[in-house]
Every structure is written in structure tokens, then in C-alpha cells.
Design goal:
- This protein is 76% helix and 0% strand.
- By secondary structure, it is mostly helical.
Length: 200
């Protein structure tokens, strides 16, 4: 089994050992085996999505586990035509955006601290590294301030989801995804530029 983030235990093992009634009462039958296959198939992509969104490996792992726990709670009710990949991306994106919005104040403090570090950075730590961190923080702040659907569209598209999967995850027409993405990109750029001006 693949390890994530260099940890000594696979996240699924931690999830199965969790002290929750739902997990304690399930037998090691075909349902659990099917869930484990889904977990192994989609874990890496959901974890990467959340890590890119949040920039914090530990928080990304926690929210990825929460995403799969929600799938676990409902996987026995899934219909054959259910798009599991799109559903996982939608849930993970919602959890990630909720986390970003909840940490807006913290992001402002980190932003200020980042500037101080940039000014005091030793010669052996290039300013470019800190500048990239600053850009990521501003991107998260811009996403947090946008309409939730626009944020979801951008995160899903730039995480590699096809228009069809995005449309299914957000209950939209596939033909509408292109124009909606263009508007979302413009809104993101406007907000990002405004944040950059504030920080000058």
C-alpha cells in the first residue's frame, strides 16, 4: 500500500481504527472491500487537491480522511450510475473552501509575518521561495472571497477534472462550464490583483 507524506501508517488504517459507531459495527465483508478499493483508487488525487488548496499537509490529510469517511457513510446506497470521482472532488473542494474561509483572519497574520520574513531572510534562503508562498496565500484569499460555485469551478478544473465531471459534481450543464470558467477566472484575477495592490 502506498504511504502518504512519508508517514509510517497508511491513512486507511487510521480511519478503520477510528472509534466511531459506524466503523465498529461493519463486518469485513464485500462492502468494506469495495470501499477500500475506492479509497486506494482515489486517495492520492483527493489528497493532492486538498494539499494544493490548503498548503498544509496535515490539514489536507485530515480533510481527505473526512471526505472518504463521508463516502463510507453512504457508499452502500450508491447507484451504478453514481459518479464517485466527481462526488469526492465536490465534497473535498467544499471542505477545503470552508477551511480556507474559516482561516481568513489567520491568513492575514501569516501574510504580515511572511513580509517580515522576506525582509529579514538570510542570504542562504532565497526571497523567491517566500514570494511564492506569498502568492499562494493571496490565491487562497482570493478564492475565499469568491462566489462558492466559482471557487469550486476553478479548483476542480485546475485539479484536472473534465468539464463533464465538473458539470455532474455541481449539477450544471456541461455546455455551461466553459463560459462559467471564463467568468470565474476573470473574477479570480480581479480579486488577486486587488489583494496584490493592498499589499504594496
Amino acid at each position: 500500500m502506498r504511504l502518504v507524506g512519508g508517514e509510517s501508517s497508511f491513512p486507511l488504517m487510521r480511519m478503520r481504527k477510528a472509534k466511531t459507531p459506524a466503523l465498529e459495527t461493519v463486518d469485513e465483508g464485500p462492502g468494506l472491500l469495495a470501499f477500500e478499493q475506492l479509497f486506494e483508487q482515489y486517495w492520492a488525487s483527493i489528497y493532492r487537491l486538498l494539499r494544493r488548496m490548503l498548503g498544509d499537509p496535515a490539514e489536507a490529510e485530515d480533510l481527505a480522511l473526512e471526505t472518504f469517511y463521508r463516502l463510507y457513510q453512504r457508499h452502500l446506497d450508491l447507484q451504478p450510475e453514481f459518479n464517485i470521482r466527481a462526488w469526492l472532488y465536490r465534497v473535498a473542494t467544499n471542505l477545503g473552501l470552508h477551511s480556507i474561509r474559516g482561516s481568513t483572519r489567520r491568513e492575514r497574520y501569516e501574510n504580515t509575518a511572511g513580509k517580515a520574513l522576506l525582509n529579514e531572510a538570510p542570504e542562504d534562503r532565497p526571497a523567491e521561495i517566500l514570494a511564492r508562498e506569498e502568492e499562494r496565500r493571496m490565491a487562497r484569499r482570493a478564492l475565499a472571497g469568491m462566489n462558492p460555485r466559482q471557487s469550486q469551478l476553478l479548483v476542480m478544473r485546475y485539479s484536472g477534472l473534465a468539464y463533464k465531471d465538473i458539470a455532474e459534481a455541481l449539477n450544471l450543464s456541461p455546455a455551461s462550464i466553459g463560459p462559467l470558467l471564463v467568468r470565474a477566472e476573470r473574477e479570480f484575477e480581479k480579486r488577486y490583483r486587488a489583494l496584490a495592490q493592498e499589499d504594496l
